Amino acid sequence: MLIERQLKQYRALNKWFQSPLGLFAAHEFLVNLESEGDYLFGETLLQLGNCGDNIWLKKFKYIHKWIASPFSLPNKVQIECALNHLPLDRNSVDCIIVPLTLEPFANSFSLLDEIDRVLKPMGFVIFLSINPWSFWGGALKIGLLHCYSDQKVKMRTPFTLNRILLQRGYKQYSLSNFCYIPPVNKPDLIKKFTFLDEIGKMLWPFPSGFYCYIAQKYQVIEPNLQLKPEESVKDYQTPLPATYFSSPSRNLYPSEKLKKDIIC
C-alpha cells in the first residue's frame, strides 16, 4: 500500500473519529477494553494510526505509549512513517493496537507481517475491527459509512483473522463483540438507539457492529546448534590408597596378599 493512499485513508479515519458517530465508537472501544487492562502492561505500547483523541490508551499500563501514523500531528504522533514500514527493531514492542487500521490494506498482508516483525514473543496484538455482517459493515459496503477516503477496504470476520494469525504462530487470547446500534450520525438518534445495545446482546446470533480480537505471539524454542569445545579432563588423585587391583588375578586386598606371601 503506497504512502499516498495511506495518507488519504488515515486522514479520513482520524477526521471520522471526531464526528458524533466516531466519538460514540471511541467510547465503545473504551468501555470494551476496560476489562482487558489487567494483563496488558509492560514497557512499550504501539498504536497504528491516530484515531481522534485515542481515549482508550489511558486504560493501558505501559511506560511508553507511541502512535505511528503516516501524517504528523503535534503532541500526538510520535512516529511518522508508512505503517507497513515501521522504523523499529525486530521484537521491540510489547503490545500493538490496531483500531480500524487493517481494513485499508485490503488483501495485502504487509501490515500483518510488519506487526509480526516488531512484536516481542509473548506480546499482544489488539484488533478493533468492523464486523462485515453487521449494520456497520453493510453501511460501509454501500458507501453510507465514511470512515475512509474510499471504499477500497476489506473487512474480515474474527474467524478469518484468527486463521491468518494461526499460520503465523499466534493464539487467540480474547474475543468480544460490542455495539449493536445502527450507524446513525446524529447525536439525538444515537441516544435513542442506545437501548439496542442491551437488546442486541440478548438476541443471538444478532451481529455486533465491532469486535475486539486479542492474540498473543508465540515463538518456537530452538536448540542452540553452536558446538562448544569440551573442557579438558583433569587428573583426579584419590587421597586414600587403592584397596584392590584392576586385574582379576591380582584382585587381592593388601592384607590377604601379605598373608599368602608368609605362608609360601
From TrEMBL:
MF-aspect GO terms: S-adenosylmethionine-dependent methyltransferase activity
Under the heading InterPro entries, the entry gives: Methyltransf_11, SAM-dependent_MTases_sf
Q: Which domain of life is it from?
A: Bacteria
Which Pfam family is an annotated match for this chain, by its short name? Methyltransf_11
The residue ranges of the Methyltransferase type domain are 79-127
Name-wise, this protein is: Methyltransferase type 11 domain-containing protein
Supply the source organism for this entry: Fluoribacter dumoffii
